[in-house]
Amino acid sequence: MVRLFDTLIGREVELVTREPGKVAMYVCGPTVYDAPHLGHGRMALCWDVIRRYLTWRGYEVTYVSNVTDVEDKIIRRAAETGSTEAEVSQHWESVYFDAMDRLGIARPDQVPHATEYVDRMVRFITDLVRRGRAYVIEGENGGVYFAVDSIPDYGALVHRSVEELLESAGARVEVDERKRSPLDFTLWKAGKPGEPTWPSPWGPGRPGWHIECSVMSLDLLDDGFDLHGGGNDLVFPHHENERAQALGADRRFARHWAHSGMVTVGGEGGGEKMSKSLGNFTTLLDVLDRHDPRALRIAVLQSHYRSAMMLGPSETSAADRTLESMDAHARKARAAGVRPGAGARSPVQAEGSSGDHARADTEQPVIDAFREAMDADFNTPQAFAVIAGAISRANAAIDVGDLVAAAALVAAVEEMTGALGLVLDDGTGATASRGVPIAGRGLSISRSAVEVTEVDPAIEATIDELVADRDAARARRDFEASDAIREQLASLGVRIEDTPTGTIWFR
RNA sequence: GGCGGCGUGGCCGAGUGGUUCAGGCAAGGGUCUGCAAAACCCUCUACAGCGGUUCAAUUCCGCUCGCCGCCUCCA
Question: Strand B and chain A: which residues 318-347 have CB closer than 7 Å?
């Protein structure tokens, strides 16, 4: 039984889906006008992990995540750069997905774009007007507004009453006096010169921000879809308004709401939220150039998805080292001949119980602990601790030669890391940024994610030769020669680990 | 100003009314190794402060202090 913290209810609840065994989820995606930053990366990773875990857990998951490609900032950007809005949004969308691919984020099943849905938004707004849930303001900066008072529980998602919301309304933004309530928000904006517009019953204009998500999520996932997610800075007003619009159309909206925490930056005593407006962001691509993308996934897994997390150089480099030791485990397992899920290729296995038996004894409790942690509101830090413990025990088992126990643990580790979208590199060519198919579904991700490093056979052969030479030198105890070869290898970017079962080299 | 959240050992970060311990990173010691690397073992015994409830609180309640988020576009 999966439990998650439901923002609307305000506590952890059991995930109860519309159809047993299926999860239809919608996660608000980016507005594409600029380079994605670490915050976008963190949120995408959080939701990727949730999606993958639910899939691993046996759910058939439909994952929809939108791209907002009509918006003030895109328009401004286009004007600044002398390009079209479409050019701006297409460019930054491709940058965004490139970064997502490198992070090993599985592509959503559907990526609806606001511009593809304008007709349907117009119809939706027309319907809201007809139902008396929206009204038109004529004149300059006019448009169609949603009447917040027309639905019963506006504010439920932020857990505030309309009265409370009114108290602080206008505290930071000027309120248009023509609105019936200061809380009313735009569904349709009348077009201004030089802006992209679409025809509508209220004249040429463009949709407000919130309406796209209501329309697209209901269109693709239908009434009462299971889970609506996003960053917790979207709770109000964006998600509150999405909900209001759907309820205003007398549609059943999301059954569950969940929100991921922000990335913070800065010094002692807690940082501030990373955001474009504060100018304190680190571009995702910069970080990806400096770190193995898997390290970022590890850093994200080591904090809970709902918590704010600091993600600066010290956090990422700590994650680098964690990753390094996890990869070292994979190399060690390979060198010992332990193959995940295949038992151990060792005489130990022949004399005692079968590999399957060992797995039943050893692996299952680990998997159970992992599932228990993840079922409790996707407690990835705890799940990660289970993985770390299994790795330790597997390494120890290899050290003492208990390859049967090791095999079961190695298999468990692969199972768990796979469920979270993490692939360990055992030095055989799984590359740093290799994409991971979703557990249990074999869903392929975009081609560019599978950056298999091209290997030059000639260089590989040279390295193998050098390693063999070094082993020979060591065998005749000519350590001067062997150390010289090691340095030669180091200059090629190749590192060496001597194990009882032979020398491993890796980059 | 309103609403909400958080404060755990050198750092990051789970968790719990009472027993032995989260975990990661870092540090120190040890084992193994020609060395290196890796690994394993051990050590570093924390829960902001002040009250209260309780046989017992880091865990529940209250207050104080500090930090953060939302109330505007934001992942």
Answer: 318-319, 321-322, 324-325, 328-329, 331-332
